[in-house]
Amino acid sequence: MRKRTKQILALGVAAAMAFSMAACGSKTADTSDSGAKTDTEKKDDSSSTEEGKVLNIRVWNDEFMTRVVEQYPGYEKTSDTEGKIGDVTVKWSVEPNDDNNYQNKLDAALKAQDSAAADDKVDIFLVEADYALKYVNADANVAMKLSDLGISSSDLSSQYKYTQQVVSDENGDLRGSTWQICPAGLIYNRAIAKEVIGSDDPADVQAAVKDWDSYYALGKKMKEAGYLVQATPYDTYRVYSNNVSNPWVTDGKVTVDPSIKDWAEKAKAEVDDGECSQDTLWGTNEWNAGFYPATDTANIGKGVFCYFGPAWFFNFSMKGDDEKSIAAQGGWGFTAGPQGHFWGGTWICAAVGSDNPTLDADLIKTMTADKDVMTKIATTYSEAVNNSDVIKELAGSDSGNMKILGGQNPYAEFDAAASKINLSSLGIYDQGCNEEFQNAMKEYFAGNKSYDEALDIFGTAIHEKYPSVELAK
Amino acid sequence: MKKSSKVTRFNVWGYIFLIPFFVVFFIFQMIPLVKTIYYSFFERYEDGLIVVGPRFVGLENYATLFSNGDLPKYFANTMIMWVLGFVPQIIVSLLLAAWFSNPSLRLKGQRFFKTVIYLPNLIMASAFAMLFFAMFSDSGPINAMLMQMGILSTPYKYFTHTLSTRLIVALMNFLMWFGNTTILLLSGMLGISTDLFEAAEIDGATGTQIFFKITMPLLKPIFVYVLITSLIGGLQMFDVPQILTNGEGFPDRTSMTLIMYLNKHLFSKNYGMAGALSVILLIITGILSFAVFRMTAKDEVD
Q1: Does the beta carbon of B273 lie under 8 angstroms from any beta carbon of chain A?
Q2: Which pLDDT belongs to residue B289?
């Protein structure tokens, strides 16, 4: 009896393994199936000029999906991740952004673009500013030129210049487009501004932070009054890195721009003087504590004076949904700050090899150049849209007032900040360089390393990340 | 005649049952292993979306690994953190196993404690690391407690100091693995015939004498097994320090292990360098295991 049980058990285990093997096997069979399908469909394609029946869109969250579903004329929602435009089925593939996951999946799909069945080909994908250049690169040639799609620069004339610089390739050809702008500014705590500067009016605060010298002088005053001027040394990094005069990498050599070096030195001085903590962005300690009225345990003195960020930052990241937060009480104000910069944004690209070029073009054009649609996006989602006409209209109307900012209308500031941004020095290595440089400087701020030693750490990390580049000595 | 044919028939079944293992082993272990070694002689990485190589470069990847000084540094980090965790782990495990296996102590609730000490191993290493990161953060509960007790006046920044970071990693590895080690050693101790203990007791041996003269020598096979597996596990240390330091191995990469370094190369899909590192790791693991094994095997002959 016992022996029998053992035999049955062993057979069961073997069967389970064989089954899992078979599962693998059937997968390969699937792909070869679809390979065969490609051939037949290619034949179909050549016999008629009709475009594909499936539009595949790759995204990392539902932001763009919501806007298309609700604003694109003729879009018909059939399920959470599927819909119809005319007789074309729209399939959304949502891959979370964390840990490079979205890019890894997208890269694999783009590599297989040639061999994929027509219905599986990527048609539209989204990119973020940090890595946009990787995809709009002319050599890589994975994102279609807008001119090839039939979208001319005059169609996009109301867009802000910086949004086009992000998705231009080396030859200056546009390979993407966006509906939103994310001009960032200085978000200040109104109560602290009243006490230390004497006014919480954006114009008065702007006068106190109009350039870096004024900003750091204010930092000293804040410290005397018992406040931190900013939560962490990294808060100002983006402002400096958006205003560099040279790209990070030229001819395989990484050089630290004077503006970036200036940031490191100024931030170190602030840390040493106790004008900011050593927490990091998105940190759970001081950085987070500044969103709330100060408490004894928070280590931020009496509070944090300012943060740097765009509209999405104060709308979604400053804990406005927590009624104890300063944001929920409308206690923040917005002004342009020492230098113009931006943070974030999502660009739409049409994939090379897409079988729905006409629909791709129409979608990009409608969502990023149609004034009516963009006005609707701006009012429905209180979003700063990539259309200077719409922004200027909002700046003059009450519908642009924001509760989180105590009723202030920031659109005029958005317009000013967005027009000021100049991104002539973007490069494909920016994301890694920016991340690793800030990581390396952590040791410098903590006092464990000198600036040059920290720079060596940066050099090691960057060569590891991008084997083709090296820190210039 | 009839009987032997039945045996052969069963043998055939034995081979059939082994096939799935060998197929899985071949596809998921053998092929990747050979490919890794093959790729270690090539320059191959991705620059954005553009694939560079593969270009045959001979031993250049290996030369780079040794010449830039990273490999010895990360190897030392790994071994230091392993030793820091393993020494207390083996001491506590031996002690617990000796207590649990000692019939004269008649410990109550053995099952309960065996379960409890094993529990930390059931938590995901990443969750455990996140927990410790929060506990030891600048304004975390450990600092708050120490400050309230008056031991510290300002929060101690654990993760900006080499020793404290390494100790936290070691502590976590210790907590996660001492239960497992205890159970392994315990099974070894229970396998020793009680006659020997009784004989020793009758001869008037003390508890310490029994432990060192009887338990330890007879425990050696299990002990060596624990040592080797822990050493290999230690060399492959990854999840705890990776999550704890967000992959950076701070401060100044002094808590970066070999596998974390390997992981860094995968960002650019640098299969050449990553392959070379893996091969070196394979060789180190082989040598260390062999050395430990020989050392103890020689003792046994004596």
Answers
A1: yes
A2: 79
Span A56-99, pLDDT tens digits:
999 998 888 888 888 888 888 888 888 888 888 899 999 988 77
**Mean pLDDT, rounded, for B53-81:** 87
Residues A303 and A357 in one domain: no
Say yes or no: A305 and A375 in one domain.
no
Residues 6+ apart with CB under 8 A from A262: A240
Domain membership flag for residue A119: yes
* Cβ <8 Å between A299 and B139: yes
Residue-range definition of the domain harbouring residue A107: 51-181+345-379
* A383: DSSP letter: -
Has residue A30 been placed in a domain? no
Helix, strand, coil: what percent of chain A each, to 5? 50, 15, 35
Task: With CB atoms and an 8 Å threshold, state whether B49 touches A460.
Answer: no
**Of the candidates A185, A439, A186, which has an alpha carbon nearest to the alpha carbon of residue A304?**
A186
Q: What percent of chain A has pLDDT over 90?
A: 22
A271 and A258 within one domain = yes
Clarify whether residues A338 and A350 are in a common domain.
no
User: What tokens were used for A355?
Assistant: 């079988």
Query: Residue A43 pLDDT more than 50?
Result: no
Closest CB from A14, A107, A279 relative to B17: A14
Q: Are residues A163 and A187 in the same domain?
A: no
B193 touches chain A (CB under 8 A): no
CA distance A361 to chain B (A): 24
Nearest to B252 among A10, A14, A443 (CB): A443
Instruction: Work out the burial of residue A450: count CB atoms within 10 Å of its CB; fewer than 13 is exposed, 13-18 middle, 19 or more buried.
Output: exposed
Q: Give the ipTM of the model, two decimals please.
A: 0.75
Q: To the nearest whole angstrom, how far is the Cα of B20 from the nearest Cα of chain A? A: 6
CATH of B69-301, picked from 1.10.8.50, 3.80.30.30, 3.90.1150.10, 1.10.3720.10, is 1.10.3720.10
Q: Across the interface, which of A17, A446, A461 has its CB nearest the CB of B160?
A: A446
Judge if A317 and A256 occupy the same domain: yes
Choose among B20, B70, B267: nearest Cβ to A465: B267
Q: How many structural domains is chain A composed of?
A: 2
Task: Quote the minimal CA–CA distance from B195 to chain A in Å.
Answer: 32
Do A448 and B138 count as a contact with CB atoms less than 8 A apart? no
Nearest of A127, A89, A39, A115 to residue A353 by alpha carbon: A115
In this complex, how many residue pairs, one in chain A and one in chain B, have their CB atoms less than 8 Å apart?
82
> Tens digits of per-residue pLDDT, A168-220?
888 888 999 999 988 899 999 999 999 998 988 988 999 999 899 999 999 99
Q: Considering all CA atoms of chain B, what is the largest pairwise distance in Å, rounded to the nearest integer?
A: 86
| Chain A residues with beta carbon closer than 8 angstroms to that of B47 | 428, 466-468
Q: Which element (helix H / strand E) includes A330?
A: none
Tokens of A237: 């990094």
CATH number, domain with residue A85: 3.40.190.10
Q: Which residues of A touch B (CB under 8 A)?
A: 10, 13-14, 17-18, 21, 100, 107, 110, 133-135, 137, 139-140, 142, 278-279, 284-286, 297-299, 428, 432, 439, 442-443, 446, 448-449, 457, 460-461, 464-468
Residue of higher predicted confidence among A20 and A354? A354
CB A171 within 8 A of CB A165: no
Residue A21 lies in a domain: no
Contact B17 A464 (CB under 8 A): no
Spatial distance between the Cα atoms of B141 and B127, rounded to a whole number of angstroms? 17
* pTM of the shown model: 0.79
Domain match, A61 and A104 both = yes
Which residues sit opposite A91 in a β-bridge? Answer: A56, A82
Closest Cα to residue B244, out of B134, B85, B121?
A: B134
In DSSP terms, B278 is beta-bridged to: none
Q: Indicate if A272 and A355 belong to the same structural domain.
A: no
Q: Does B52 touch chain A (CB under 8 A)?
A: yes
Query: Is there a domain that residue A45 lies in?
Result: no
